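User: tokens in, sequence out, please.
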């Protein structure tokens, strides 16, 4: 498991092969296809997040793309699309965007293409 602390601010792409817990700030895409992503209450993410499952306690602006479930907890604020087969929106959570459980394959394909483009640049 990887842990990014509260004082860490990243501008750029984050790529993880295992579970990822983020307490700090990230401006850019986060990819963790092989594991889960947890955005703690202190986290702020501006960019797409891809994971097996995604749990949000903090703030996220961008697409949340999960192959299993997106769980938005009390106090969390999400602005953007949620693309996952399952969504848990807990009481006290805020979601400003759309939910699209049927576009998962297309969204993953686009995200992989965009990542390939960034890697070749």
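Assistant: Sequence out:
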């Amino acid at each position: 498991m990887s842990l990014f602390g509260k004082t860490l601010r990243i501008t750029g792409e984050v790529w993880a092969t295992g579970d990822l817990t983020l307490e700090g700030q990230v401006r850019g895409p986060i990819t963790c296809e092989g594991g889960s992503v947890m955005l703690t209450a202190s986290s702020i993410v501006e960019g797409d997040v891809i994971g097996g499952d995604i749990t949000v306690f903090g703030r996220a602006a961008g697409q949340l793309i999960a192959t299993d479930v997106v769980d938005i907890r009390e106090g969390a604020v999400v602005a953007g699309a949620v693309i996952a087969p399952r969504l848990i929106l807990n009481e006290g959570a805020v979601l400003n965007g759309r939910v699209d459980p049927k576009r998962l394959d297309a969204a993953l394909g686009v995200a992989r293409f965009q990542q390939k483009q960034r890697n070749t640049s």
